[in-house]
Design goal:
Layout: H1 7-14, H2 28-57
């Protein structure tokens, strides 16, 4: 079953044009530091919890 005739139709149905978001250059340094010191390490620490969620919910299915 197909709801859309092609990829362009899907993209048009699921997106819209809006205001352009331009990041504030003053924040680049702080977000870089947050990524390096915090966000890049979060997954490794959360991985055991993600596995427990999978055991409880069965999602995502193991292949």
């Amino acid at each position: 079953m197909s709801y859309y005739s092609d990829f362009s139709a899907v993209a048009a149905a699921m997106t819209r044009r809006g205001e352009e978001f331009v990041p504030d250059p003053k924040n680049v340094e702080i977000y870089g530091e947050l990524y390096d010191r915090v966000y890049s390490k979060m997954y490794r620490h959360l991985q055991p919890l993600y596995e427990q969620i999978g055991e409880v919910t069965g999602y995502p299915p193991k292949i």
